[in-house]
Amino acid sequence: MVAQVLDGKTTAAAIKNELAERVAALKERGIVPGLGTILVGDDPGSQKYVAGKHRDCQEVGINSIRVDLPATATQVEILAAVKQLNEDPACTGYIVQLPLPKGVDTNLILESVDPDKDADGLHPTNLGRLALRTAEPIESPLPCTPSAVLELLRRYDIDLNGKDVAVIGRGTTVGRSIGMLLTRKDINATVTLMHTGTVNLADKVKEADVVVAAAGSAGLVRAEWLKPGAIVLDVGVSRVVNEDGTSRIAGDVDPAASEVAAWLSPNPGGVGPMTRAMLLENVVKMAEGTE
């Protein structure tokens, strides 16, 4: 068996084309969506990530609003930047790029974001709405990476109804939020949340029809852990140093999993591009909601 690829790059490109049409329709009605970013410091990874978001905006016609602060920025200065974007009518939604400098109360900063401009879908208010609505429609922004996982599967006509899903990783971005989406009545999956401290992790993963690996531990999920024919989404990202001193991005899933799984999203090239696409989806949806 050789797993079929869940191609996030191609799928994200298709979504961007669809979003460009929706943005053009909004502009005809005098509405210009705007994505803002707050970047503190000069971390190369964060700079690259933010730059990618603004390139995505350019591709679909969304206005870009950048607020860049030095690494020496104080908590008061960061809160002022948050206030600025909360009040800026040109900003439909925005993100605060993490990590923030040591000594800054990250939770305070994130909770100060206007929930209606929460492009990441991770504000406590929006997560609370998701938790409370198991069947009702959700109009507030949804967490980008969990949404990316579900949209990627939907685009490949993979039905999760009745499936047993192993989610590995307990972070807010994926692990703690994706279960609320997967167990909604319109998706109807059964979820077991696991992590690197789970006892007999391999045995429990082998029972799952679907595996979402999001622990950020390179190569954690071995091929022999998987049920033959499983659907595997490699979400976790780690930077691994090669023998020659260079580094590369590695996912949580051993590449040999392609010999066991029926479907496999690669890393990079799978859920990552989809996450950026779903961020744009949130911004466009929020702009459409202003009409």
CATH topology of the largest domain: Rossmann fold
Largest sheet: 6 strands, parallel
C-alpha geometry: globular
How many helices in DSSP terms?
Answer: 9
The side-by-side strand order for the widest beta sheet comes to 1-11-8-7-5-6
Explain what you see.
With 291 residues, the protein is of the alpha/beta class. The protein has two domains: 30-114, Leucine Dehydrogenase, chain A, domain 1 (Rossmann fold); 143-272, NAD(P)-binding Rossmann-like Domain (Rossmann fold). Helices cover 37% and strands 17% of the residues. The protein is built from nine helices and eleven strands. The protein has a six-stranded parallel β-sheet. It has a three-stranded parallel β-sheet with strand order 3-2-4, with helices on both faces. It has a two-stranded antiparallel sheet with strand order 9-10. Strand 2 (34-40), helix 2 (44-60) and strand 3 form a beta-alpha-beta unit. Helix 1 (8-28) runs parallel beside helix 9. It is globular and about 50 Å long. The relative contact order is 0.17. The model has no long low-confidence stretch (mean pLDDT 95).
Key features of this structure:
single chain; 291 residues; Rossmann fold; 2 domains; six-stranded parallel beta sheet; three-stranded parallel beta sheet
Summarize the structure.
With 291 residues, the protein is of the alpha/beta class. Helices cover 37% and strands 17% of the residues. It has helices spanning 8-28, 44-60, 75-87, 106-111, 124-132, 144-155, 175-182, 201-205, 271-288; strands at 4-5, 34-40, 63-69, 93-96, 164-168, 190-194, 210-213, 231-234, 238-241, 247-250, 263-265.
